[in-house]
Amino acid sequence: MELTVGNERVAFRPWQPTDGQVFRTPFAFHAETTTIDTMRPWATPAYVLGAGFDGKTGLFVPRDRLPAFWATHADVPIACHEARFHLAVVAAAVPSVDVYDRVDRNAVYDTWLMHRLLALGANGHTAAGVGESTLDRCVAEHLGETLPKSQTDSQGRVVRLSFGRWLRRPSADIEPVYLDCLARVTAATFLLFGRLRAGLERLLAESGGSWGYVSPDWLAAQVQRWGWQTHHIQVRASIVLRAVTANGLTLDLDRRDELTARLQAEATRLREELRLHGYLAGQPGAEAALQSILRRLERTLPGVTFPRTAGGKYATSREALGEQAARVPFLVTLASYQAIESLLGGFVSRVRKRVVHPSFDPLVRSGRTSSFGELNAQNLPREHGVRACIVPSPGHVFISADYATIEMATLAQALKSQFGLDSGLARALNTGRDPHRMVAARMTGKPESEVTNDERQRAKPINFGKPGGMGLAAVRQCAKASYGVDLDDGEAQKLSDACEDEFPELGDFLRPESDEGEAVAQLFGLTPASHHAHTRCRRFLDHPENASRADDPHSILGRMCLKVLKSDLPTTRAGVPYQSTDVDYFWSRVKGGLDHLPDQVRQAVRDRRPSPALLRAVREAADRAPVFTVTGRLRAGASFPARRNTVFQGLAADGAKLALWLLWRAGFRVVNFVHDEVLIEVPASEDLLAKAEQIRGLMIDGMRQVVPDIRIAVEYAACDRWYKGAKAVRSPDEKRLELWTPPGA
Length: 745
Prior knowledge:
- The protein is α+β, with helices and mostly antiparallel strands.
- It is built from 27 helices and 20 strands.
- β19 (729-730) and β20 (737-738) form a beta hairpin.
- The mean pLDDT is 93.
- GO terms for molecular function: DNA binding; DNA-directed DNA polymerase activity.
- Keywords: DNA replication.
């Protein structure tokens, strides 16, 4: 069979064992299978027919020849679109062959991930939307070609959905239209691989000015080790997370029913409390009533103001109202009600069968993973005993293992090796000191040994929030939401000062990379020349400092623009109102740059309606810039906090993914993965202590691949349910790991 690939005609033929090794350079491989079970999409369908293509030669690989073909070409890299799927199909068809050995050798390329990593580095997103990364979409976007979708066979069946009819039938019987379809898809995958490889190489070659960039030699070393944009790490994660989905989570349905009844009763009680305030939750007119209540509270409670949307209404989400909740009893009740309703509508309503199969996305913008589908297994509440509804499958127990303060360890690694800073945080971690206790001691003036657990807990929000560029208001909100800690402004400031006193390198890490006014001027083209063209005023154009810089963004114009966006009556530092022609210039330039701004503030720009919300949106848009992880992954268009978080969260994610791979390759049955925690089922009859120690060792080994200079700690526990806060319990002779149960259980 012949077809046109690019400008050449190429032939596809069946591979014979007597052919031996045909491919000696990277080739594309595509497997066609029986129909995927839409009710069980995690189940691996049966291999029917595959094909390989290296740019010159095309080979069809029937099922009965797959073991020999795979063994003969074991040393040659392959490219697939969604390698996790194709490797699983081959592994199921050839169980005697270790198909994942290629992954260990970094010899598997995934065009699905390459496309997404290119989008991350070029556009700041991971093309994670429905249909954004399919093979059809990628071929159309990068090659300008269309794959055959509607081909039908002699009986009118859609070819792409009907390969299963040829399972275990002689390859000579397969209708040519099926072979043509497979050949075209495989050839397109090969061409796509080449185009994406060139795009990634070009992206990285032009990235030298990005924040976190170290040197050309550094970047070349990261690409050599981890692939373009950490591709090899993401391949590993995608494969294991597919297996985690297939393993599933077992539920105690009786416990879930008890939880449902308890939550419904609590929701009823809270609805009655809210009714007494004039708010009929879930009823018509409830939103208008809530706006009236917030307006009244703001008017009658001194010092209380509520955030508003760009449209001028009060923001009513839990996050928006969280900062004032502790001061307003109505908001405490409202937040509790919203949390329970979310739980009833999310977890409880979605878990109606004994085993659920959460899906996972191996790559989000920060480099972390996410969960979706039958259950968001990474975002289950800690409260109300939700996680305790998840139990091991019969005959097993859980070993839950997680990294201790891993993001502080990855921050210390980045400070040291990526930014070249002398790191007190690194020294503290490597000598076994507790950063939370250190900051609490600095703030209270106590010796570290006398710091209470409560004082240590109060230091956590600042230690985790400050390095991510979190302001004090956000730290206070995080403290309440994540740690159950109420911090007033003064205490938050003192903790922030103590953190920077203890770890002064954070000052360098958090220093802005550019002038805000210049960034705004760059965003909207605020130059002396454009200012003169609009206003006919020459004061910027003729200023001596602007000689030869008429078309350069001007920081003073940028700062003036910010004042216009904030206030109806912008003035100079001397209190002189801005000229109307200047105000008109700034609004016109911002309107011309609407594409840079989020949808919710665009109407405010058209209406020339200044507000703190509009000011914040423009500041965030102007501040976006690219950032690197120390492993060599570039993220475009990241905000100031996102750039800081990406440095240490992205590095922690890379290490955790490498650890996940080691655990899976060692044969452990991982049933959930939550950023820095793994939940593993082991047979109850096993030596739990030995298994837990093996898990701990593999997790440390994985993280050390990217965090070689900082001490890594892993904590574990054995339990018969998924408990947050479970601790290791040893037998009296210290030789056995026993099941942990909550106090009073």
